[in-house]
Amino acid sequence: MDSSATPGSLGEYLRQTAPQLAVALGVYFGLRAFGVPPYLALAATALAAIVHVALSVLRGRKADVVLVVVVVLYGTSAVVTLATHNPRYAQLLNLFPGTAIGLALLVSAVVGKPLTAFVAAQYRPLLARSALPGRGWSARDIQDYARMHRRTTFAVAVTGVVQTTVSVLVILSCSTDIAQLFCDVVGTGTTVLILVLAVRHIRRFVNARDAAAAEPKEAGFAAQDASR
Prior knowledge:
The protein is mainly α. It is elongated and about 70 Å long. The protein contains 8 helices and no strands. It has one domain.
């Protein structure tokens, strides 16, 4: 299977998500089990997330823009929670990054510049549009690849928007504990599932077109061997 069809960061993302989710659930529900109010448990969860990010930097990961944004987000969440004593504000604030990404994906699909194609090319330069002829792809293959990315980006965006909408409804209508459990488990699980399905879809497309492009070459080699 051609690994070039899959952004190399997916495995890293999945490995990082599991401990982050465990920390979030452990801190929040651990404190709640001891009778700590929801807003203090949420603030502690945000601070624990900041510590987790700091430790990942100390272990060798670069302090990139994404990490800075994560720290700012969790810091803001902790401040809002402590200032208002209203945990729902913090829970709604935590939905902002996903909402922004979903809208960006939607806009990119509509204007014909799908972000999934950009991300794939960043992590696998051989999937950049300019490099596709070098894989033996025809002009039709390249056009189909672009259309596939537009559809994939649009599907991911719509799913993300629906997920955010449902999360908002749960936060506003359910208890803080139920909402936190939903956002952490269902929200994170849905995000991981969307990523896995999108990457597999891209991988299957690339592998199929690579195989089709290789068939004429293999047939030519066979003909040369037969003529000898």
